[in-house]
Specification:
The protein is α/β, with parallel strands linked by helices and 272 residues long. It has a single domain (2-270), classed as Spore Coat Polysaccharide Biosynthesis Protein SpsA, Chain A. Helix content is 36%, strand content 17%. It is built from eleven helices and ten strands. It has helices at 12-25, 44-53, 112-115, 135-144, 162-168, 171-180, 186-195, 204-207, 214-220, 227-233, 256-270, and strands at 2-6, 32-37, 57-62, 97-101, 105-107, 124-128, 153-161, 199-201, 209-210, 236-238. Strand 2 (32-37), helix 2 (44-53) and strand 3 form a beta-alpha-beta unit. The longest helix is centred in the C-terminal third of the chain and has 15 residues, at 256-270. The two termini are 26 Å apart. 41% of the residues are buried.
C-alpha cells in the first residue's frame, strides 16, 4: 500500500496518529509512506522513526523551492495548494496507485477495500459528503461549471490512478484555471472543476465520514448509521472543520475521546 501526505511542521504528530490507526486496523503487510514537504521541514527524522516503529517505510518528497515560480501564488493561494494536484510529478514513475490522506483523520476499520477500488477509466476515487439536500452540490456545479460530475468531491481522501493522472494533468491547466477564477477552496475546487468527471464516487459514510454530521448520516440512512454502526463499518473518520480534536480540552463531539486515545498512544510509542 502506498500512502501520500502533504504536511508542514505543525502536523507531523497528527500524521503519525493516522499511520498508527492504519497499522492497528488494516490488513496490509507493506506500507510505503510518501510525505510531500519543503526543505524547511524539520521533523523528517521523527516521521522516519515513527514509521519504523510501525513497520512502515518513510519516503521524503521534497518540492524544489523554485518549481512554482510561474504559478499564481498569493497569501490565499500558497504553493502548498499545488502539491496534492501535482504529486505525480514528484513521485517515482514506477508507482501506479497511491492513496492521499489528510492528516486530520483516523482509520478505524480495514483500509484495503478502499485502496483496491477499481479505477479503470478513472483518475481518482473520492467521496461526496452527505447532506440533507443536494442544494450545495447544485451551487458548486453552477459555480465550477462541472455539470458532468456526480457532485462536489472532498479531496481529503483521494485514491489516485497515477498512470491516468500523468496523461491528463498538466500544471499549466491548473495555473490558468486559478488565474481565471475566484475559488473558495483552491485545490479542491480545481480538482472538481477540471477532473470531476474522472472521479469514481465511493460512499462517504464508509470512506470519508464527516464526524460533525453523525445526526445527518443517521437521518438520511433512516436510522441505520448509528454510532455503533459507524464503529463497526466506517473505515475513515474525518475531523473536518476548525474544531480539531487535538486542540480541544473538553469532550467536543462523540469522536474526540477516540481520537485523543490514538494520538496519546502514538505519542507514547514514538518516544521510545
Amino acid at each position: 500500500m502506498n500512502l501520500l501526505f502533504s504536511i508542514d511542521d505543525r502536523f507531523y504528530q497528527q500524521l503519525l496518529t493516522v499511520l498508527y490507526s492504519i497499522h492497528l486496523n488494516s490488513s496490509v503487510d507493506e506500507v510505503n509512506v510518501y510525505v510531500i514537504t519543503t526543505s524547511q521541514f524539520h521533523h523528517g527524522n521523527e516521521l522516519k522513526h515513527g514509521c519504523e516503529l510501525l513497520g512502515m517505510t518513510y519516503h521524503s518528497v521534497i518540492i524544489p523551492e523554485d518549481d512554482f515560480k510561474d504559478a499564481p501564488v498569493t497569501d490565499r493561494y500558497p504553493t502548498t495548494i499545488y502539491y496534492r494536484l501535482l504529486a505525480h510529478r514528484y513521485l517515482p514513475q514506477d508507482l501506479h496507485r497511491i492513496l492521499y490522506l489528510d492528516a486530520d483523520l483516523l482509520c478505524i476499520n480495514d483500509l484495503m477495500p478502499l485502496y483496491n477500488v477499481d479505477l479503470s477509466g478513472y483518475m481518482y476515487a473520492s467521496a461526496i459528503h452527505t447532506n440533507l439536500t443536494n442544494a450545495t452540490d447544485v451551487i458548486n456545479k453552477i459555480r465550477l461549471q462541472n455539470f458532468d460530475a456526480d457532485g462536489y468531491y472532498n479531496s481529503g481522501v483521494l485514491l489516485m490512478n497515477l498512470d491516468e493522472i500523468r496523461q491528463r494533468v498538466e500544471p499549466t491547466d491548473i495555473f490558468n484555471y486559478i488565474r481565471d477564477h475566484i475559488l473558495l477552496l483552491p485545490d479542491q475546487d480545481v480538482l472538481n472543476a477540471l477532473y470531476g468527471k474522472y472521479i469514481r464516487s465511493v460512499p462517504d459514510e464508509l470512506y470519508n465520514f464527516d464526524v460533525r454530521n453523525l445526526r445527518i448520516y443517521e437521518t438520511i440512512s433512516m436510522g441505520k448509521c448509528t454510532l455503533d454502526w459507524v464503529i463497526k463499518n466506517t473505515v475513515i473518520l474525518h475531523f473536518c472543520g476548525r474544531q480539531k480534536p487535538w486542540l480541544v480540552t473538553t469532550n467536543h463531539g462523540k469522536f474526540t475521546a477516540l481520537y485523543k486515545n490514538y494520538y496519546q498512544m502514538m505519542s507514547t510509542i514514538s518516544k521510545n
